[in-house]
UniProtKB/TrEMBL annotation:
Name of the protein described by the UniProt record: 1-acyl-sn-glycerol-3-phosphate acyltransferase
Entry similarity comment: Belongs to the 1-acyl-sn-glycerol-3-phosphate acyltransferase family.
Organism: Aggregatibacter aphrophilus
Biological classification of the source: Bacteria, Pseudomonadati, Pseudomonadota, Gammaproteobacteria, Pasteurellales
Annotated keywords: Acyltransferase, Lipid biosynthesis, Lipid metabolism, Membrane, Phospholipid biosynthesis, Phospholipid metabolism, Transferase, Transmembrane, Transmembrane helix
Domain observations: The HXXXXD motif is essential for acyltransferase activity and may constitute the binding site for the phosphate moiety of the glycerol-3-phosphate.
């Protein structure tokens, strides 16, 4: 019964956010700060899932400037966890099929996000080139999930290199954003689904990399993010163990 009630409430809230967000975004059509505004609206829904979410930022977060944010992409719960971390003047890159998602697709387009045709490698490459141009000309930051798809419990999947090519071409740093593991930890029939930690790491300078060693950059970022995810998972497990002992 709890699960059904939650699904109904969450569905109504999501539709309202999409409808109101679309109206707002048509008033400020494709303004790059729209994305962060509504990402945080979705992020505020986390209590409906029985989650406590902690968001951690570096001390210099307001001085980061133009960059490419890369996050781990686990499942649909990302909408109420890591999405809250999207900063002002940041747009995301998503597959073009998102446009057909009821209510959400039109919001995704109207807020100013960028669609990627993953089935056409030539168009995908051109999109990365366009990203590099827009980052500097339009004073944008870009949010990407370099795994390219949801991991769904398979751990941090290998990274595609598009985000890293774009960062090198634009001459901007990579900023990793990680979220502790949520796979198989959320049961909508359970009141309390525990804690999730989302953390923005320090920027990574890409000036020492070129197209020839872009794979090294991708692997370095992958290893860094995997290590931090493991640490966050361990921190949560230790905290939960301590709380159980006290209880």
């Amino acid at each position: 019964m709890l699960k059904i009630a939650r699904i109904l409430i969450i569905t109504i809230c999501c539709i309202l956010i999409c409808v109101l967000g679309t109206v707002y975004s048509f008033i400020r059509f494709r303004n790059p700060s729209n994305v962060g505004i509504f990402a945080r609206w979705f992020g505020r829904l986390h209590p409906l899932f029985g989650l406590k979410v902690e968001h951690r930022y570096p001390a210099n977060v307001n001085q980061l400037g133009r960059c490419i944010y890369i996050g781990n992409h686990q499942n649909n719960y990302d909408m109420v966890t890591i999405s809250y971390m999207v900063m002002p003047r940041t747009v995301s890159v998503g597959k073009k099929s998102l446009i057909w998602v009821p209510f959400f697709g039109i919001l995704y387009w109207a807020t100013g996000n960028i669609f990627l045709d993953r089935d056409n490698r030539s168009k995908a490459h051109n999109t990365m080139t366009e990203l590099a141009r827009r980052i500097n000309e339009d004073n944008l930051s870009i949010w990407m999930f370099p795994e390219g798809t949801r991991s769904r419990g398979r751990g941090l999947l290998p990274f595609k290199t598009g985000a890293f090519h774009a960062a090198i071409a634009a001459g901007v740093p990579i900023v990793p954003v990680v979220c502790s593991t949520t796979h198989n930890k959320i049961d909508l029939n359970r009141w309390d689904n525990g804690k999730v930690i989302c953390e923005m790491l320090e920027p990574i300078d890409v000036s020492g990399y070129t197209r020839d060693n872009v794979r090294e950059l991708a692997e370095y970022c992958h290893d860094l993010m995997q290590k931090r995810i493991n640490e966050l998972d361990q921190e949560i497990a230790q905290t939960q163990c301590a709380e159980n002992k006290q209880g």
